């Protein structure tokens, strides 16, 4: 069995949870042990985030993970103004920064200001490797994590809703862009501080959330496609 499966990841599941779940189903279908089944993905989502995961099934497809992961992505983002978080999202320790309530026009201007080619520093709580170790592992151990800025492209930002302190927008970005860092940069631009309160990925390259199914859907393997 081989091909691509589009999964709508629920909140609370890690990307590995989804891979492991699908691997077990494929193993049962093929009469194999899970350890003998090749299943991977083209890019993680944080546990609290929801949305599109592109799952690769079979050696022919898992070996293409690098090729298929370097694609543009679209996210629906909710950010909370006035506070920062040590992890850049809901899980971290919060610090109140400002009670300033920017106008809708100011938010739209900041979203426009941060559109295009920008330099972005990945968050300390990320899967980036430092001397062979994941940054988030070092950060959780209380060690100082220093990550260098790198170029990313923000193709478009569209404000969809604003009711202080919550701002919702849709962002199309290049592969390798961290939305948590982008939200923190927006908070600095607005002078309020901000963290990512919610995230949903809706597009990876030509793959859309509209064709994805929950990992627990019945007969999920019937949704495998070949490309």
Structure commentary:
- With 227 residues, the protein is α+β, with helices and mostly antiparallel strands.
- The chain has two domains: 3-70 and 205-223, Pseudouridine synthase; 73-203, Pseudouridine synthase (2-Layer Sandwich).
- It is 23% helix and 34% strand.
- It has six helices and 13 strands.
- The protein starts with a strand and ends in a 19-residue tail after the last strand.
List the helices and strands and how they pair.
Layout: E1 3-9, H1 15-30, E2 39-41, E3 50-57, H2 59-62, H3 65-69, E4 73-81, E5 83-85, E6 94-96, H4 104-113, E7 116-120, E8 129-130, E9 133-134, H5 135-140, E10 150-163, E11 166-173, H6 179-190, E12 194-204, E13 207-208
Parallel strand pairs: 3-12
Antiparallel strand pairs: 1-3, 2-3, 4-11, 4-12, 5-6, 7-10, 8-9, 10-11, 12-13
């Amino acid at each position: 069995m081989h091909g691509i499966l589009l999964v709508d990841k629920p909140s609370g599941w890690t990307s590995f949870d989804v891979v492991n779940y699908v691997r077990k189903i494929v193993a049962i279908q093929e009469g194999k042990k899970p350890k003998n089944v090749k299943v991977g993905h083209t890019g993680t989502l944080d546990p609290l985030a929801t949305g599109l995961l592109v799952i690769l099934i079979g050696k022919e497809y898992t070996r293409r993970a690098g090729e298929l992961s370097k694609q543009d992505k679209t996210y629906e983002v909710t950010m909370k103004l006035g506070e920062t978080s040590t992890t850049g999202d809901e899980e971290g320790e919060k610090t109140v920064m400002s009670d300033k309530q920017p106008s809708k026009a100011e938010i739209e201007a900041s979203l426009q200001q941060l559109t295009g080619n920008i330099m972005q520093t990945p968050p300390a709580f990320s899967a980036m490797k430092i001397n062979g170790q994941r940054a988030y592992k070092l950060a959780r151990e209380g060690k100082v994590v220093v990550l260098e800025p790198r170029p990313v492209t923000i193709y478009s930002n569209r404000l969809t809703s604003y009711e202080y302190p919550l701002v919702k927008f849709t962002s199309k970005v290049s592969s390798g862009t961290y939305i948590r860092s982008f939200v923190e940069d927006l908070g600095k631009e607005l002078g309020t501080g901000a963290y990512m309160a919610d995230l949903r990925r809706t597009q990876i390259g030509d793959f859309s959330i509209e064709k994805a199914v929950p990992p627990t859907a019945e007969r999920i393997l019937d949704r495998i496609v070949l490309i």
